[in-house]
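Researcher: Good morning. I'm working through a list of sequences from a screen, and I'd like to move beyond sequence-only analysis. For each chain I'm collecting a predicted structure so we can compare shapes side by side. This is the next one on the list. No need for commentary yet; just the structure.
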Amino acid sequence: MPESRTHSGKALYISFILIQSLVYGIGNPLTKVAYHSITPLWLLAARFSLAFLLFALFFGRRLFSQLRKVSWTLWLPSALCCAGAYISCNLALDLTAATNVGFIMSLPVLFAPLLFSLVFRHPYAWRHLPVQLVTIVGLFLLCCNTGAFSFGPGEALALLDALCLAGVLVFGEKAIAQMDVLSVTGVQIGVTMILSLAGALLFDHTSVLAAAKPEAWLVVLYLAGVCTIAAYLLQNKAVAHLSASTVSMLQCTQPILTALVAYFLLGETLNGLGLLGAGLILICLFIDSRIPQ
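Model: Good morning. Structure tokens for this chain:
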């Protein structure tokens, strides 16, 4: 295959992750807006129920046909990590600033390569570590602004989210080796729907749904169609062609976009240090892309 075609194909899958970061960067602040009239668990339950119904309508036959051919042990780890990531992220957004969550959510840039090495018994690429560490510094400056970083329940949940996101990338890469992208996406959405509904029914009241305002339901529509189905199809397609380490590095653009949207929707602002952090992240992304895998 010509080298130019190879680079062109890689650029396409890189753009998939950048688009995903954009829709998540919009979705995180919108989620906080929706929390004015709906609880995190019911928002998740509604989001993933709608997403799974839409997915099953168009791809259900293909999904169930493929699930009959593989063991549940292949797809369940990725699906459970997906559910854990979404549940912990949405609870974290209810407890702390969107920019703080954006920072901690990007820690898979460190977790994913380590987990990949353990799962696939592959040597860790130490040459990437210095750039990844500088990226973490940039993320800290971006989302903590003055550096006065406090670690509470919201931050702890965001850290759990980061660990689960690394699992989604690594175990998703393993599942996609034997399943198609649509099927992996479908089981991730389905398992997340089941666990979200169970959590909402156990810990929330159904009266929350009747009290939800129209803007909250509009957010649910955006999250279900764009941030769930479209974004995870993009990610799983990219993971089939890019390493989990590369994908996690590209996803570090998400807090930049989250911070930008949060400024307009929530009034969360960045100072000089925050802008410096954004610049560091972009520089590190470029450097990391030039380092051999």
